[in-house]
Write a structure and sequence with these properties.
little secondary structure, Alpha-Beta Plaits
Length: 187
């Protein structure tokens, strides 16, 4: 298969915290800053307790923990816990920001333990899978196989229609006798 532009493919594989049922990041935390909420299984970090030791980062097999160099604490996806339980928001808006912002609706949010939920049906009917099941962490986040679609790009589609600067057009070239920027500027 030809892999030169425009016949290229992009695979976007987001990896945020998977909110594991058995999160290895929690028991290694020496201060108890990493914890799993018993009521919903969301794994969070208490920034007031975190000392930035990075033990949780080393323990996470998915590599989703990051140190905030400014605050000196570990950061991770919170599943937008403040949004999903915000009773002032309409029910359809109580989803993580990444789900709401996804332009292709590739992200779903719901209860994987409810066999009738949208996410459970999607996982079951589309061959969804958990990352690295051999680690035994039982992640709540699952992935669906990539939708393979061939897109034929025609030559006339290679120029952006929304290009206000017209960068794709041929630019005027200066006369060879005109001084260049290097000639008139002292660096």
């Amino acid at each position: 298969m030809k892999t030169e532009f425009p016949n290229t493919e992009t695979l976007h594989f987001p990896k945020s915290c998977l909110h594991c049922e058995d999160p290895p990041c929690v028991p290694v935390c020496p201060t108890g800053a990493s914890y799993k909420r018993p009521e919903d299984g969301i794994v969070l970090v208490d920034y007031d307790k975190c000392i930035g030791c990075k033990y949780c980062s080393w323990a996470c097999p998915y590599g989703v923990r990051e140190i905030d160099e400014h605050q000196k604490v570990m950061k991770k996806c919170t599943l937008c816990v403040d949004r999903i339980y915000d009773a002032t928001l309409p029910e359809e808006r109580r989803k993580p920001a990444c789900v709401l912002a996804c332009p292709t609706n590739a992200r779903l949010f719901g209860d994987v333990h409810d066999p009738d939920s949208e996410v459970s049906v999607a996982i079951r009917e589309n061959g969804g899978y958990a990352l690295m099941p051999e680690w035994g962490t039982k992640p709540a986040n699952h992935y669906l196989p990539r939708r393979k679609q061939r897109i034929k790009i025609h030559t006339d589609e290679l120029v952006r229609a929304d290009n206000p600067l017209k960068k794709e057009r041929a630019q005027p070239k200066p006369d060879i006798k005109e001084p260049s920027l290097d000639d008139v500027t002292s660096w």
